[in-house]
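Q: I'm writing up a methods section and want to include an example of the input and output format. Could you take the sequence below and give the corresponding predicted structure tokens, formatted cleanly so I can copy it straight into the document?
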Amino acid sequence: MPSFEIPDGPTTVPLMSQSVKGKALRTASVTFTVTNKTDQPLSCRLKAAPQADAQAGWFELQGEKERPFAAAETQKVTVNVAVPADVTPSDFKFRLQAMNVNDPGNDYAESAVATLSVAAPTPPKPGKVWPYLLVAAVLVLIVGGVAALLLGQKPTPPPPVTVQVPDVSSRSLTFAGAQAILEEHGFTVTRIAGPATGKPPETVVSQDPAANAKVATAGEVKVTVDPGVPIPADLRGRQITDVGDRLAQFSTTITALGDNGSTGQIVGFDPPSGVVAKGSPLMVLIHSPGCRSFVCLEGRVSMEQIRAFQAAGGH
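A: Here is the clean output for your methods example:
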């Protein structure tokens, strides 16, 4: 069951015409109520999720996109909407999503669908045409005069529009956390398993393009993660002296069991299975029957002690 709840919200959002930095837009502010249903404090990641033909760039949350919620706390979340005035008239929809930062892929809630209705512009009322023709003629003369003055001068092209790539490689994020952030900004994500570095499995170690790089469009980001090291359960039954290379990626200790098995034969591991960080502790359990066994070395021994004991004729 989701930890957060968005119990209500507007279903139809009226838009207002507005000019921002000389650009004609249709704008609105939509407020939702988000509640932490649990009895413990949580961190919540908020996202305006466009539906169908709506565009992610039309929506912006007021305040932090990740914010703390106390146990059973309710907060107001406002989404600012800015739709270009030249968008083809239609109904565009979106939802507000509230995700548990610790498990964004599974623990999240969504609001009801909110609809932005973009109507066709109202045609001007019929009237006298000649004043408009006069204004148009004057504008043509002005533009022609300016063009004559600038003839021979190449116009300065506008600066290219770029998108900044979010930083997901310097924050010890898991792949799931990095994917949620990148997709929230409109990027697609590809997972690459790199070499084990000693960080927890699935920790992001690098990204391409680099953090904060400027790119032309929100395209693909390759995210390299530490895959961790699997416990070598397939080594059960092998001699400990034959598999040192397979154990080199762990901080290995060896416990000898005084039983009736073959001396030095691997019985099992602790932890018994799974994937851990490179360099993690790993206990290897081996057979060591009889009094002249590794038990005489107080039960826990190193690879060097095993080789020395066998060289001296131990079994």
